[in-house]
Amino acid sequence: MRELEAFCCQHSSCADYGQRGAGNLRWHGWSGKKKQIRMLYCRTCKQYFSERKGSALWQSRLPEDQAISVLEHIGEGCGRRHVW
To answer: 42 FRET partner, CA 20 to 30 A, in 31, 62, 73, 84?
Structure first.
């Protein structure tokens, strides 16, 4: 699990938008079926967002390991059939 300093506020109207390690984020709970996706809170703009927002995994319904596998296959120029 990545440290909070690796994330930044995803709300474009926030003064700390896009600034990693600004100290404005805190953990706010879990999301997803298996409670595996962290929800973050920005103290600057007082907004909540998923740790996946702004990434290739945003709005993905796949478990993280399967989503990453699909992205790796696409990066290699291969397809991936829906076998799981």
So the answer is: 62
Q: What is the pLDDT of residues 24-51, one digit of tens each?
A: 999 998 987 777 788 999 999 999 998 8
For 60, counting Cβ atoms within 10 Å of its Cβ (0-12 exposed, 13-18 middle, 19+ buried), the class is middle
Unique residue bearing structure tokens 């930044």: 8
Cα angle 16, 22, 26 (rounded to 5 degrees) comes to 95
pTM: 0.65
> In the chain, where are the structural domains located?
1-53, 56-84
Q: Are 42 and 16 in contact (CB under 8 A)?
A: yes
Q: Which two tokens stand for residue 71?
A: 């992205």
Report residue 29 as tokens: 């709970």
